[in-house]
Specification:
four-stranded antiparallel β-sheet, 290 residues, 2 domains, Rossmann fold, 14 strands
Length: 290
């Protein structure tokens, strides 16, 4: 893959990969700051993944490095970067972004979608640079598991909040307060803006991890990040969950479920829900666990 330096214009990255790797590659691209990510299935074994980056995006070298890690397991792995002519690429990609229905109670929409007059609550998410529009399986799984908990009057921590979609969904479902945590300042800005869009900014706060008070614990903690990060943060996520509180974890491939469960086994017994190649865990913290 030829490196592109500076900010020459809109960039499209197309990756021809094994179908079993497509979901994880899509998640990497979404998390990196792509404005849109789409998959095109060519056959049962290979899939094309396409991502669009804006002219002012400065992280292409890091994206290139992350993507190249998948080459070792795929001898036919190919990556193509294309400079695009000046068009409204964001607008064109947004036109293809459909509302997402989650369980019986939620619908995740963009600001230009109409709010349907039915029993579902509409969560408005502006698809900017942060992960979390509801289209990825892990976000959908977390939102579905949240909707199955009793949230009225609860406090919630969304660890790795991205767009803030899960914290906002919890607030719309009755939570009293939500705190979003992310290491990306742009994600914190996006999540605040989305909280305003949904009229829940008075109940929402977000910050870097170091700014969360040491004594703070929540009734419900949700973390939709990669499996290795969940394992590394296991002690912190357990500490943040009140005894008898609930923990929801995703960003986990099916093959990684046991690894993550083992890291939390002294405090949680999890139920697992799957969607595609991905899984999500939900469990209640044991009262006397450390």
């Amino acid at each position: 893959m030829t490196a592109i330096s500076g900010n020459p214009g809109w960039v499209k990255i197309y990756i021809d990969c094994l179908s079993e790797q497509a979901d994880l590659i899509s998640a990497v691209l979404e998390d990196s700051g792509a404005l849109s990510v789409s998959t095109l299935v060519s056959d049962s074994k290979r899939t094309g993944v396409e991502a669009l980056y804006s002219p002012d995006f400065e992280g292409l070298p890091s994206v290139q490095a992350e993507v190249e890690k998948f080459r070792s397991k795929d001898q036919n792995f190919q990556v193509t970067q294309t400079l695009l002519a000046d068009r409204d690429w964001v607008g064109e990609s947004q036109q293809n972004l459909e509302p997402v229905e989650v369980g019986q109670y939620l619908r995740i929409i963009a600001p230009w979608h109409d709010i349907s007059e039915d029993d579902r609550m509409s969560i408005i998410i502006n698809p900017g640079t942060s992960f979390g529009t509801g289209h990825h399986e892990t976000t959908w799984l977390c939102a579905k598991l949240l909707s199955g908990l009793e949230l009225k009057g609860c406090s919630v921590i969304d660890y790795g909040c991205g767009s803030g979609v899960l914290a906002i969904a919890a607030l719309q479902l009755g939570a009293e307060f939500a705190w979003g945590i992310d290491i990306d300042p742009d994600a914190l800005t996006d999540s605040r803006d989305n909280a305003v869009l949904n009229g829940v900014d008075g109940k929402y706060r977000c910050s870097l991890p170091a700014e969360l008070p040491n004594s703070f614990q929540a009734d419900i903690v949700v973390a939709n990040i990669f499996a290795d990060a969940l394992v590394g943060l296991s002690d912190e996520l357990i500490r943040l969950t009140r005894p008898n509180g609930w923990l929801i974890l995703s960003g986990i491939l099916q093959s990684q479920i046991s690894q993550v469960c083992n890291a939390f086994a002294h405090a949680f017994s999890f139920s697992v829900e799957y969607l595609g190649d991905w899984g999500a865990l939900v469990g209640q913290r044991e009262e006397n666990s450390n």
